[in-house]
Every structure is written in structure tokens, then in C-alpha cells.
Amino acid sequence: MGEVVTLSTLALALGMDAFSASLGMGMAPIRLRRIFFIGIIIGSFHIILPLLGMVAGRFVTDTFGTIAALIGGLLLIIAGAQMIIAFFQREEEERTAPVGWKLMLFSLIVSLDSFSVGLTLGIYGAKVLLVLMLFGGIAAALTWSGLLAARKAGRWLGPYSEAFGGCVLLAFGFKLLFL
Asked: Which domains does the chain have, with CATH numbers?
């Protein structure tokens, strides 16, 4: 049960990028069918990238042993720091709902940090199916939530969720390094 809580918290932290970006994107008029499709695509990327990271992480563990554990913690810290820095450097920009290759690129960008987390989880031997179900499902749900909330709430919530996600990743990175 502890692993599910930990992985759910990580999935929530990673999905905050998608949620934050979806809040901004949701300011443009988007049909419900398109909202559903965007969530599925982003959720899929949050499955594919951690899977690739976990495969690489298992290889790294078999090859490099304990050094890989330190690298995994550092990667989480770097990913979290990047999210926090992005929060402070964010400029006001016009957002529209991406389509085609722009949607794929957008999904890759908001899911990229899940690769490094997958790498770390692969190093520590986490349960692959559980990780992928949680990461993909929570990312899709947060994307849908962000797009739908943007219709109602406005711009004030978006950037803060990204900073929160970065803080969670930093905390997990320090936990891996020092505990």
C-alpha cells in the first residue's frame, strides 16, 4: 500500500505539468471530444516515457549498481528544480489547443520529466504495470481536469500547480539521496 501512495504522489507531481499547461490551453474554446483526445494522448506519453526510462534504469542498475541510485535521485532533483525555475520565468503567452504534430510535441514536453522518474523507478525496481497505470491515468485525469477547470476558473491557478509539482519531485529526489 505504501508503494501505491508513493507512486500516486509521484504521478500527481509529474502530471502537474500537464495540468498547468492544460489550464493555459483550456482558455481557448475547445470541444469536449477534443479535451478527451488531448487527455488520452498526454496520458499515453506518460506511459511510454516512464516505460522507456524504467527499461534504461534496469539496464543502468545491472551495469552500474549503487552509483545509479545517486544518479536517479539527482535526476529527480533536476526535474523538480526545472519545474520551479519555469514557474518563476514564465511569461504571459497566448495559448491555443495544439493539433497534429504540435499535440505530439506538446505531449512530449509535458511528459519528458516522467522519463527521468521512470529511470529512477527502474533503478529501484518498481512494479512496472502499477507505475504505468498510475502515471498514465493520473496524467490523463489531470489534463482533463485542467482543460475543464480552465473553462470555469481562469488563469490564476495554472503556474502554481507546476511549482507544487516541482517541489514534490525535489522532495523525492532528496529522499532518495539522503534516506
From this structure: 2-178 (1.20.1250)
SS3 for 94?
Answer: coil
92-130 pLDDT, tens digit each = 554 456 678 888 887 887 787 788 788 878 777 788 899
Residue-wise pLDDT for 53-94, tens only, equals: 888 877 766 666 566 567 767 777 877 787 678 777 765 554
Cell 495559448 identifies what position? 95
The type of residue at 85 is I
Report how far residue 157's alpha carbon sits from residue 24's, in angstroms, rounded to the nearest whole number. Answer: 9
Burial class (CB within 10 angstroms; exposed 0-12, middle 13-18, buried 19+) of 43:
buried
Contacts made by residues 106-110, CB under 8 angstroms, sequence distance 24+: 106/21, 106/42, 107/41, 107/42, 107/44, 107/45, 108/45, 108/49, 110/17, 110/18, 110/21, 110/42, 110/45
| Sign of CA pseudo-dihedral 49, 51, 55, 60 | positive
pTM: 0.70
